[in-house]
Specification:
Length: about 160
């Protein structure tokens, strides 16, 4: 089974997502459907690490981090099941540019309300030029989704 494509999505679109397609089996992936139709299993983001705190303890660290892009904030948590990402976060001091590949997570505290976050697989410090390139490519991908949505709406 091959890896899912990591989508380039801005924080505003990611955080506005409210539809989850749950997989039917243990190995079947789940997807987050964005308002513009991105079918997200994995996500690739680059932005500014603005917060990075160990909310666990020294023996069992759990890192909560915030990454901002031009549209908003991504929320991320890494613990014992993401050891590579947790170790990377432990070494990073905000503010700095970071790139993250991970999977989405959802949390629904009440009926009709859903929050999304990223469970990172890989985290790395990058230069501003990488962030700038990500913003440009993500703008292009977002415009493609908007165009596809406009075409789909013509069929209704």
């Amino acid at each position: 089974m091959s890896r899912e494509v990591a989508w380039r999505v801005f924080a505003a679109e990611f955080n506005s997502s409210s539809l989850e397609m749950k997989g039917e089996g243990e190995k079947t992936p789940s997807y987050l459907i964005s308002p513009l139709g991105a079918k997200i299993n994995r996500i690739f983001v680059v932005g500014v690490l603005t917060d990075n705190d160990n909310v666990g303890n020294e023996n069992e660290p759990v890192w909560r981090a915030k990454i901002t892009d031009p549209t908003g904030t991504f929320y991320m948590t890494a613990g014992q099941y993401q050891p590579e990402a947790a170790m990377a976060l432990a070494k990073l001091q905000p503010p700095c540019f970071v790139a993250v590949v991970g999977k989405f997570r959802t949390y629904s505290p009440e009926e009709g309300k859903m929050y999304v976050s990223i469970r990172p697989e890989r985290v790395g410090k990058v230069e501003a030029s990488v962030r700038d390139g990500w913003v440009l490519e993500t703008c292009k991908a977002t415009m493609d989704r908007i165009s596809a949505m406009e075409e789909a709406m013509k069929l209704v």
